[in-house]
Amino acid sequence: MPETSQAVESWLNAFDSALSAGDADAAAALFTDDGLWRDLVAFTWNITTVEGPEQIADMLRATLPRVQPKGWSLSEPATGEAGAEEAWIAFETAEARGFGHLRLQDGKAFTLLTTMVELKGFEEPLGDRREKGVEHEVTKGRRSWLERKTEQDAALGDSEQPYVVIVGGGQGGIGLGARLKRHGIPTVILEKNDRAGDSWRKRYKSLHLHDPVWYDHLPYLKFPEHWPVFAAKDKLGDWLEHYVALMELNYWTRSECRNARWDEDAEEWVVTVDRDGTDVELRPKQLVIALGVSGYPNRPTYAGQDVFRGEQHHSSDFPGGDAYADKNVVVIGSNNSAFDICAAVWEAGGTPTMVQRSSTHLIRSESLMDLALGDLYSERAVANGVTTERADLIFASLPYRIMAGAVKPAYDEAQVRDKEYYDGLRAAGFDLDFGEDDSGLFMKYLRRGSGYYIDVGAGQLVIDGRVPVVHGQVDHLTEDAVVLDDGTSLPADVVVYATGYQSMNGFLETLISTEVADRVGKVWGYGSDTTKDPGPWEGELRNMWKPTNVPNLWIHGGNLHQSRHYSQFLALQLRARYEGLDTPVYGLQESHHRR
Q: Which residues face 272 on adjacent strands?
């Protein structure tokens, strides 16, 4: 046996002995002083990270009697070198089978990831457990698959109530719905648009995904191998629509959630839905809000907006550059949407101007794909045996406490590789940053969900002066101009507010109540104490994919990668509750930063 595997097995045996003896302190002593244990549901019925032996021991004292972990073993030979071993591991608990990742430093655990894979006795019906589909016996009155499906679809939400209602039918709601369908949980997905995928189709025509195809697969059904690296928005919309049909989801189009309230006596939600002009009342036990990675559009208020004679709207309503040929378009903002909009206007023959209010992180798509994602999500990664599922777990094995340091070298290298590009941006007057700790794009995304642009071409327009950049805050609008706080007047036929979005708990205030929104608290960010992500340190994204301070209310979202990966753990939490299992939550986050 290789020396690295021997070291890991020795640690696993000691860990197993301590856990079997119920000795939380002995188990915690097997971690380094700065050791980190990230648990995705397996021990805590939560998504949480405990840091250092004291917190680890506290978690174990609270969970060991119920969890009863055992069977710790290597799932494949360990890697790394002596004193710095890494390994994929398997284990069991009283309720579930688990999988994880371990990093050792000089014989002690530096990071441990534990994830729940499946609930014993409630496994998904795949492989040998798949349904037969038909009984090979001829009987009178036998109904076809389509007849049975049509009857079941008509009954759900009418004579039968769903156990889960998902508000939002974008990629998040669709992916989670697919997992719940496979778990056999009656679920209705509410989508206000006419068709699945319309949330993508209705965006401006030049929009493509900025993340690569290997990063963006949906659960169970991957994109074909010939699929483009960066899919067009309409292509993705069509894929989502076909996915809904293929996965046989109970997907209600033209259905908008008007409001929801908790019925204390019945212990269920009362959800009022406008379903294509007809009021429908649903009574699910669990309510999932899956309305995207952000909240409502942040529409700023400036003096003079009422006198401006041209068009003005938020970037989420941008109709595309063709509408603004020969127009002066002032774009307020300097992040992804702002660059995309400026490029679309310039391509169509309009004259865009970008108003940069604060510094922005830029990275060329080619450099991001190679340096930050190439080892995990690329054809190179696939050739090295790194599947999307394995890549997800590698990424999940890095607790947020150390993630910034782990990803920073990629962005340091980008600054060297693309020095001429960055010099050109600065020479054009663009205010550039790499994050407050130079950790780059993904940490900005996790902390605040804004402040960056993956450059798919528009940066060169700024460098060449084809899209001028001005700095400052908007003071007011006149009939035909945007005036900044230093007196600069920008002629405008159109003003586009690329000013981002509010916190997701704004949806809760509208759909349920202010009280519920405040009880949940801020959604997104993890307490890094950086701009737009105030402390205290929480170590996990606030309220995402895990229990909130409002029982039976869940938040699901994120980009395609996060929606895919974390939907499996949200589905397991919901399955356990559906089956009536005991699910005591360890480490429920406090509510911070209300609305």
A: 259, 281
Helix (H) / strand (E) containing 53: helix 52-67
Burial of 129 (C-beta count, 10 Å sphere; 0-12/13-18/19+) = exposed
Per-residue confidence band for 142, with pLDDT thresholds at 50, 70 and 90: confident
Task: Write out the two tokens for 69.
Answer: 């972990």
The 10 Å CB-count burial string (b at 16+, else e) for 326-353 is ebbbbbbbbbbbbbbbbbbbbbbebbbb
**Count of CB atoms situated within 10 Å of the CB of 590:** 9
What is the DSSP secondary structure assignment for residue 527, as one 8-state letter?
Answer: -
Element (H, E) at 150: helix 145-155
Q: State the CB neighbour count (10 A cutoff) for residue 507.
A: 23
Lowest mean pLDDT segment, chosen from 3-7, 139-143, 196-200, 413-417 = 139-143
Q: Are strands 553-555 and 286-289 parallel, antiparallel or unpaired?
A: parallel
Peptide bond into 399 cis (omega under 30): no
CA distances from 184 to 147, 210, 223, 267 (A): 19, 34, 24, 21
For residue 107, what is the DSSP state?
Answer: T
Length of the chain: 595
Each residue's pLDDT tens digit, 77-109: 999 999 999 999 999 999 999 999 999 999 999
Tokens of 325: 């040929």
Angle formed by the axes of helices 388-396 and 560-578, nearest 10°: 80
Beta-sheet strands, E only, within 164-277: 164-167, 187-190, 251-252, 255-263, 268-275
The 8 Å CB, 24+ separation contacts for 10-18 are 10/107, 11/102, 11/104, 11/107, 11/108, 11/109, 12/72, 12/73, 12/74, 12/89, 12/102, 13/72, 15/72, 15/109, 16/69, 16/70, 16/71, 16/72
Query: What count of Cα atoms within 13 Å lies in the side-chain half-sphere of residue 194?
Result: 2
Q: Which residues, other chains included, contact 447 with Cβ-Cβ below 8 Å and sequence gap of 6+?
A: 525, 526, 528, 530, 531, 532, 533
pLDDT tens digits for range 424-440? 999 999 999 999 999 99
The DSSP string of 270-287 is EEEEEETTEEEEE--SEE
CA distance 366 to 71: 43
For 16, the enclosing helix (H) or strand (E) is: helix 3-20
CA dist 475 and 52 (Å) reads 49
DSSP assignment of 422-450, as one string? HHHHHHTT--EES-TTS--HHHHHHHHS-
Q: What is the DSSP letter of 208?
A: B
**Which amino acid would we find at residue 352?**
P
Nearest to 88 by CA among 20, 2, 8: 8
pLDDT surpassing 80 at residue 190: yes
What is the pLDDT, as a whole number, of residue 595?
A: 62
Residues 6+ apart with CB under 8 A from 308: 477, 478, 479, 480, 492, 495
pLDDT tens digits along 339-391: 999 999 999 999 999 999 999 999 999 999 999 999 999 999 999 999 999 99
∠ at Cα 37 (81, 436), nearest 5°?
90
pTM of the model: 0.95
